[in-house]
Amino acid sequence: MIKYLMRKTIYKDMDHETQDMLLQLIARYHVIEFFCCFMFWPVVYAFPIIPVFIIDVLEDGEFSMTTQIALIAFMLIYIVGFIVFNKVFNRIMFIFSELLAKRIYFLVCTKKGKALSKEDFETIRQINENLYLFIETQNCRGHCYSICFEMCKALKKGAIEFIATKKFAIDRDDGKDFTMHVLYVNNGWAFDTYSSRQYPVEKLYKIYKAKVYKSFDYDSICDKSYDEFRDEQEPELAKWSAINDCSIFWKEKKEET
């Protein structure tokens, strides 16, 4: 039911193939975001009624004149305040619900899997706090090359894997059907920067309809900087991408992050 509603609303302008991919990659975030956004509004609108029930219990249903005047004054102040500060209030509520959704998603989705353990996240936090914050706040989308490279260097294990992923229909403006993407792979699982989630790597291949280019384990990158690794690998990767109908956007690290 939820997937059907998403197809008809959030993803309504996309083709069925793109919808299938997005539902498997980021639908959970949208669900969490929706509930975090709307869970507060019933409380906001019910708030003026709460004092009435409390006073009703305390005074056995018989409101004194003083109580009635106080309730009317409270209602008026609340209504005027809500109208005056509506825009500011909405903005604050939106920011708070968005931060809450990101935090819940990180704990419930990002940290679940076998590519990265809780200890691995703590290691990343201690060694590279900026990298940890990028992952924690789901800001690593669009930075897969450098994020995965730095994760592998920080953890001193696993590998980074280059794959050509099927493009979403809305992104095929250059005529290419695939785009280059990088995963952090460990224990047969992969961390995906687009969805900020961990998947069995074979499942992720199916979701992305991937063509696998090449993997680089920690030992092969440990003595290289990100820029050195990029300069060394980009020519061959560009040739492979041209043959395999794949776009490649390998930015400098300072541009990515």
Structural class: alpha+beta
H/E topology pattern: HHHHHHHHHHEEEEHEHHEH
Radius of gyration: 25 Å
Shape: elongated
Regions with little confidence, pLDDT below 50 for 5+ residues: none
Assembly status: single chain
Helix content: 55-70%
Distance between the termini: 38 Å
Describe the structure in your own words.
The chain has 257 residues and is an alpha+beta fold. The chain is built from 14 helices and 6 strands. Strands 1, 2, 3, 4, 5 and 6 form a 6-stranded mixed beta sheet that branches. α3 packs antiparallel against α7 (86-110) and α8 (118-127) packs across α9. The protein is elongated and about 85 Å long.
Summarize the structure.
With 257 residues, this protein is of the alpha+beta class.
Observed structural traits:
single chain; 257 residues; alpha+beta; 14 helices; elongated
Write the SSE topology.
Layout: H1 2-8, H2 16-25, H3 27-38, H4 41-46, H5 50-58, H6 65-84, H7 86-110, H8 118-127, H9 129-136, H10 144-155, E1 159-166, E2 178-186, E3 189-192, E4 197-200, H11 201-208, E5 211-217, H12 218-221, H13 226-243, E6 246-247, H14 253-256
Parallel strand pairs: 2-6
Antiparallel strand pairs: 1-2, 1-5, 2-3, 3-4
Helix pairs in contact: 3-7, 8-9
